[in-house]
């Protein structure tokens, strides 16, 4: 397998760089979009990467990643704009059009990348929201940068959004944007979706800026979470910390607006991924992968960003012990682990990489025989086609996060099945476990349990696997990315059109909401005007 960076060739979604030019302007200069848009996505990163060619020319190419994978189909069905960082620090790039989308680059200085992105987003919020798997750091200069950069995102979004546009803000890096944007543009309809878990209140309240972030999110009309539990945590905090009235999924905000908080489990473009996996080229590549690995009877596969939340060490440890104990014969079974490079300037990620290198090296070296090592560890990023071939080739997919908002890899594996074969071993701490009940569910902290389940999945009779996979496939194909986006955008529309009634308070007992407010009153969720 070749570890090429994916998509090196110019192809669809590639534009020449006479558009998207670097200009000599301050970072906070006013932005001039080429046109205004009625649908705007705001995310930390633009869905493109710049490619510099040997002849000195540069192009922009559609880039991979969880969020991009998730939103691409939605953006293409709308004529929209996308606001996000273009990936290079200390550089101002003019808005440009790519593949029918207006792209609005948000510049970040080198220090802001360190403080807003690597610092507050990935050193404070990411671990805090993932059950403090590693200790979050609370640094005031990181928070200051987070506020400043969120304001810049809000300013740029306000410049590109048309009157009354729908703006969909994405994820934990931009939680202050809804409120900042509402202050600038009360005419906008604002949705926010959090891709990672929203933590239990006991953990969340550690955050020194807990109230500011809750207020930031409440600037949206609709706040979406992966799971109902996240929405519940948020609603509880809004009551406890901000003393606002909530009833069922609704918050009655101080300015008289109704904000809805609800779960929208994200998914994948299942049909198009299945089509890719079904092609002759993918079939040939899948066969080639198995041949290169020595035609194992059972091919285990792991695919993750290299992140401490993903349970990579637990999984590799479990596989290594099964090999050492002779319960997995390395002549007959192999593990391929793809670990896509991620956040490499953050210390904990560098440490994790070293730990995995050591563990894989130890396991492979302990199998004292000449031939292929039992673990093929690939610290690289691959094209979509190669991912589809890997998924197609694998007999047992192992997804073991310690905490994960959803986990798209689990759904992608299911979508790539050609028949009701294969087995999915899935952590109960991935959001996906709520929907994929027929997976082999495991607790990744319980290495013995994980080992038992890996053996069970490996040896399960075809008929048992088929029954499970049939149900998994139905779930994934019936709840795809279009379903997710439609559900969110339809609800956003209902909230802003005033179709969602502030629920009447139940007569006695029951009722989720507590707190002050007008007893029994029914408010239409008025759209706030300036
Ligand atoms: C966050 C949340 C939530 C990985 N390596 C390659 C590659 N990938 C793709 C996978 C998948 C995506 O990246 C990873 O998505 P996940 O959902 O597994 O995880 P996060 O990156 O942590 O995403 C997560 C998600 O947002 C969406 O809301 O599910 O819980 O943490 O699509 O296939 N793609 C290619 N080459 C690689 O080497 N092309």
Automatic annotation (TrEMBL):
GO biological process: trehalose biosynthetic process
Cellular component, GO annotation: cytosol
SUPFAM superfamilies associated with the record: UDP-Glycosyltransferase/glycogen phosphorylase
First-tier enzyme category under EC: transferase
Region Disordered, annotated ranges: 1-25, 511-530
Family: Belongs to the glycosyltransferase 20 family.
Protein name as it appears in the record: Trehalose 6-phosphate synthase
Organism: Microlunatus antarcticus
């Amino acid at each position: 397998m070749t570890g090429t960076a994916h998509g090196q060739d110019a192809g669809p979604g590639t534009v020449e760089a006479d558009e998207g030019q670097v200009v000599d302007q301050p970072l906070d200069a006013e932005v001039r979009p080429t046109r205004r848009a009625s649908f705007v996505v705001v995310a930390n990163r633009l869905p493109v990467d710049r490619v510099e060619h040997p002849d000195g020319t540069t192009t922009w190419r559609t880039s991979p990643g969880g969020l991009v994978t998730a939103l691409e189909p939605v953006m293409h069905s709308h004529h929209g704009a996308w606001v996000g960082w273009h990936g290079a620090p200390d550089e101002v790039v003019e808005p440009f059009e790519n593949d029918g989308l207006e792209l609005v680059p948000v510049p970040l200085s080198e220090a802001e990348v360190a403080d807003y992105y690597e610092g507050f987003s990935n050193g404070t919020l990411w671990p805090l929201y993932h059950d403090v798997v590693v200790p979050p750091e609370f640094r005031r200069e990181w928070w200051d940068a987070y506020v400043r950069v969120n304001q810049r995102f809000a300013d740029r979004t306000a410049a590109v959004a048309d009157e009354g546009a729908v703006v969909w803000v994405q994820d934990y890096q931009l939680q202050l944007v809804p409120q900042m944007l509402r202050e600038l543009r009360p005419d906008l309809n604002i949705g926010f979706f959090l891709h990672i878990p929203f933590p239990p209140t006991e953990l969340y309240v550690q955050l020194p800026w807990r109230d500011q972030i809750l207020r930031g999110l409440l600037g949206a009309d609709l706040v979406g979470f992966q799971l109902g539990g996240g929405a519940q945590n948020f609603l509880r905090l809004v009551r406890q910390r901000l003393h606002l009235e909530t009833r069922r999924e609704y918050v009655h905000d101080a300015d008289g607006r109704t904000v809805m908080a609800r779960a929208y489990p994200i998914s994948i473009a299942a049909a198009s991924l299945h089509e890719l996996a079904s092609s002759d080229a993918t079939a040939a590549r899948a066969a080639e992968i198995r041949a290169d690995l020595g035609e194992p009877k059972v091919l285990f596969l792991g695919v993750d960003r290299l992140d401490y939340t993903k349970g990579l060490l637990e999984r590799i440890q479990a596989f290594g012990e099964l090999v050492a104990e002779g319960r997995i014969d390395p002549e007959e079974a192999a593990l391929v682990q793809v670990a896509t490079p991620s956040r490499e300037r953050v210390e904990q990620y560098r440490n994790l990489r070293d730990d995995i290198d050591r563990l894989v090296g130890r396991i492979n070296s302990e199998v004292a025989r000449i031939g292929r090592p039992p673990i093929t560890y690939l610290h690289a990023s691959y094209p979509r086609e190669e991912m589809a071939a890997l998924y197609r080739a694998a007999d047992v997919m192992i997804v073991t996060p310690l905490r994960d908002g959803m986990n798209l890899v689990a759904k992608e594996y299911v979508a790539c099945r050609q028949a009701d074969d294969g087995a999915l071993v899935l952590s109960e701490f991935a959001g996906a476990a709520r929907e994929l009940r027929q997976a082999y569910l495991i607790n990744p902290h319980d290495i013995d349990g994980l080992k038992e389940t890996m053996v069970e999945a490996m040896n399960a009779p075809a008929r048992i696997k088929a029954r499970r996979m049939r149900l998994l496939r139905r779930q994934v194909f019936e709840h795809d990315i279009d379903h997710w986006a439609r559900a969110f955008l339809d609800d956003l529309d209902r909230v802003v059109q005033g179709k969602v009634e502030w629920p009447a308070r139940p007569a006695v007992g029951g009722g989720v909401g507590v707190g002050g407010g007008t007893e029994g009153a029914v408010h239409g969720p008025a759209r706030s005007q300036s």
